[in-house]
Amino acid sequence: MMSHIHLHQGASESLWISSALIFALLAYLRGWLRLRRHEHDHGFHENAEGWRAGSFVFGLSFIWIATASPLAALDHELLTAHMVQHLLLMTFAPPLILLGMPRELLAHGFSRRFLQTSALPWQRMQQFARLVTHPALCWFAAAVTLIVWHIPWVFMLGMRSQMWHGVEQASFLASGLLFWWPVVRPWPSVLRWPELSILLYLFLATLPCDILSGFLVFCDRVVYPVFLSSRQSFRLSALEDQQCAGALMWTCVTVVYLIAGTVFTARLLSPHRSPDRTEELAFPRFDSQRSAVGHADSQELDRQKLDPHRIDPLRVKAV
Known about the structure:
Largest sheet: none
Oligomer: single chain
Order of helices and strands: HHHHHHHHHHHHH
Low-confidence stretches: 1-5, 275-302, 311-319
Strand content: under 5%
């Protein structure tokens, strides 16, 4: 009975999620195309590479598979399907989305008037982002989210309530984005810790996953009784389903973190690596109308340096 109710409620939820993901994709592609034209006009291709767009599209696709595809209808039938959802939302989709989001892309995704009017709120958002993206906080948020939602009575809360199920999925995605932020760093910044500490960061992140997955694999009883009454369509008993879910989590997390650690190590050892710089986000600061005019004047001055014979018609009219 619960599965039929879940299917009925999940259909409308899937429609909303699909619509939101399509809107996010269109907004992203708009900014990416504008950035690509801008970089093409200036003779360089640094942030609008095709692989970035592909990475972002794959990230959104994984979110759709986890929340709005037929897989979402199986999470009340199989713990393995439920675990696949968690892995897609926390381990696979976040790094792909962050890899596809260079800071310049956001600036080209909005109009200049919007950037001028939202400069002050964006500066406050920058300060908040620096606070919540501290590596210790990111690691702690991911570990707590993983452990808490797999406590049996909390797990059952998400299974019985569509609202709490949505909160569960949103928390996995949010904590995944936080966890991968210090590793991917989509916007240039200075690490709070030495770069080598990221390898320790990734290693320590495997410990909660190893403990949980090991418990699910080697436990001799079904931890979540809700799956005892589910129809076993894949010829798996509830205990075998639990062991499969634990083994899948154990394998996927280990492989993904190992790949991330290998890529990070290769980047550290690269002789062509440029040192990190402290840079602000691409949104220009316009504290007032005067500063906006000053910004425009500085751009005009730079253009005149390149072309000293160029005369600004607006300045001639003003004179």
